[in-house]
Amino acid sequence: MTPTTDTAADPESAEENGNSTLWPLAVIIALVLVVFWDNLHWLVRTWSADEFYNHGFLIPIISGYLIYRKWDHLKQLPRVNFYGGIAVILASVSLHLVATYLDVHFPSTFALIGVMTGLVWWLWGWQALKEIAFPLVFLFFMVPLGKLLIDQVAQPMQLFGAKLAGGAAQFLGMPTTIDGISLQTPEYSFEVAVACSGLKSAIAMLALGALLAYLVEGVWYKKMVIFLASLPVAILANAVRIWLTLVLGRALGEKAAEGFFHTFSGMLVFLLAFLGLFGVTSLLRCAQLREDI
Prior knowledge:
By secondary structure, the chain is mainly alpha-helical. The protein has helices at about 10-20, 20-35, 35-50, 60-70, 70-75, 85-100, 105-125, 125-130, 135-140, 145-170, 200-215, 220-250, 255-260, 260-285; strands at about 175-180, 180-185, 190. It has a 3-stranded antiparallel sheet, covered by helices on one side. A hairpin with a 4-residue loop joins β2 and β3. α12 (about 220-250) packs antiparallel against α14. It is elongated. The two termini are about 35 Å apart.
């Protein structure tokens, strides 16, 4: 079956097609902004206020940059097999209408990503969509899931972090009692709060792991290992943070453990997790960046 196309496959006509879509694209972008304005306002407000999703501002910037780096190549691609984009747009708009009716915001963000995906497919064709599939999928990391995620995941991570850090302290000979999310030594007691559960760093590290797996050269299964490793690396780094808090509290007292170190330790977790993920990448011999970025 001959693929649906409205342009020749030569570079000049493909580039003309890319340029011809610029003015309708501007109109469509304006319409999308109008339709999703409330959702965009909610996104910015949530990224600003919710510490678990402060990284949300960076995600669309990174995706936009990755697309920009491929822009010259995209303009050369023929517009083929593009009608499927219309179905994606209609399905995404329907999801947005249902989410708006139910007054639930995060599905509307999924719908927004779906509309953008459908527009790329419709205006530039299937080949262009395949080229920028990752930047579009990467946008899912900007979606704040709020209580849906925190309520389901934070408590198990609190319990696991306390057990892991407390177990490490006991293994090293420190008299430590583990009671749920509470850790106690004769000199100091510490409770692993939601903010110390490691969920914040885990969410950010999953996004970083996906980006790193995309940027490096390597076979697909090594890239998958890099991405999947980002979660345990983040959890282990947070357990180190809890253990260090316990050690400082016992050795130097509550002020030392919950003062400057408590503020600084959030950065420490991310640094440790990043170094751990970089170590996994090096072990897999995927340290070289891909040439098309």
